[in-house]
Amino acid sequence: MTASRAKVEVFEDLARLTRRAAEIFVDASNRALAQRGRFAVVLSGGRTPEGLYRLLADAAEYRDRIPWRASHFFWGDERCVPPAHPDSNFKMAFSAMLSKLDLPAENIHRIRAELPSAQAAQDYEDGLRRFFSLGEGQWPDFDLVLLGMGPDGHTASLFPGGEAVREKKRLVLAPWVPKLSSFRITLTPPVFNAAKGVTFLVAGEDKAVALEAVLEGESDPDQFPAQAIQPKAGSLIWLVDRPAASRLRRAPNS
Fold this sequence. Notes:
Elements: E1 7-11, H1 14-36, E2 39-43, H2 50-58, H3 60-63, E3 71-75, E4 77-79, H4 89-96, H5 117-131, E5 144-147, E6 172-173, E7 176-177, E8 182-187, H6 189-193, E9 197-202, H7 208-216, E10 235-241
Parallel strand pairs: 1-10, 2-3, 2-5, 5-9, 9-10
Antiparallel strand pairs: 4-8, 6-8, 7-8
Helix pairs in contact: 1-2
């Protein structure tokens, strides 16, 4: 099994999955605050996490338990569009959650994807190095990384057949994605794998084949880039709904 260290939790519907993700977010934020006085989280784009962001901002049972002003928000990847563009991962998270909170502007570390792609990637990497005070060969230690997975097994903007999944040195890349005919900005596998915790949110029957391959198939990150996410010391949790889990053969951990 390719993800033997992973904990897999299956939920009857997206609403229950989302509430579990909210608890993970709350726990990670408070643990980070106690340990080092701040919480650094990587947000995911896509449809699945939008409900989580709304829940965290709108539901007092979660919102009131999170140290927002000590929380710093980053993104795992971004489309090469301005921040107000409908396709922007930043815009989705800002509209659903961040705009509703009393946050210092400096706590929001967006990818400046309106810049040329290579420049945007370097700018984001430079910002990460400053925030985490990184020396040569060091990696940021995010407290929590939220990720999704596409029906093709991609995660963030690590797509099948792309070279970014094999990156060993850079924190951020701007790969060309042929199937989308566009550049993307993405964190690299070593960044995700240095995190204290990674949580995947996966929902929908269209993810079932890829999820089976990622969790139970042979290791082939070139074909299924989500397999490249294997934190060295942190936790790895897959939150999946019943349709996405429909092809899994082994009993999920709980």
